[in-house]
Write a structure and sequence with these properties.
Layout (H helix, E strand, L loop, with lengths): L1 E5 L4 H9 L4 E5 L9 H8 L7 E6 L4 H11 L3 E4 L5 H6 L4 E7 L16 E6 L27 E3 L8 H8 L3 E4 L4 E2 L2 E2 L1 H12 L4
Length: 204
Amino acid sequence: MKVKICGIQTIEQAKVTVSAGADAIGFVFAESKRKVTVDQAQSIAKEIPSSVKKVGVFVNASKDELEATVHGVGLDYVQLHGDESPKFCRSLNLPYIKAFRINEAQDLSKLESYDNASYFLLDSATGPYQGGNGTSFDWRLLKNKAIDSERIILAGGLNEGNVQEAIRQTRPAMVDVSSGVETNGIKDTYKIKNFIQKAKERLI
């Protein structure tokens, strides 16, 4: 199971995350308590091996901003959490992850319109922010849905205590966590290591 740790803000956090076995890390460029500047992300990215994917999180950013940040930081993917239309996403010459806030089964029908997305990130619709609220949606909504699980990144309310059950129910390509590996809003080394270990354990 691949694991993405989102909301990385320091070189130290990045090094801990990489050494713990993360497959991807996320930089938040949208308004958030975890927001980083392009300069901060550049400094951190230099310390990350190419084997670990670098993802930038944006909300309704312009095409110019996306392209400039990708090239400035060396991002592998842009993760779009806003109202980006299928037409806008198709116009990007960038690998992208489209995020969706899932509340009911009908919300999953939106995925079809973004057919050229590299991944679909499924998050909870509960909470004030476009992502990173620490709440989960009903994973049973994914049962019997004709969705390519190899393109699904599961997010929302995951932590070391529930990640194995989440994987068991949804079989995603990757799990994504931010607040679930924090203590008092700060990335917690112990929780990061435990989460990645749990996510990568063979399910019985």
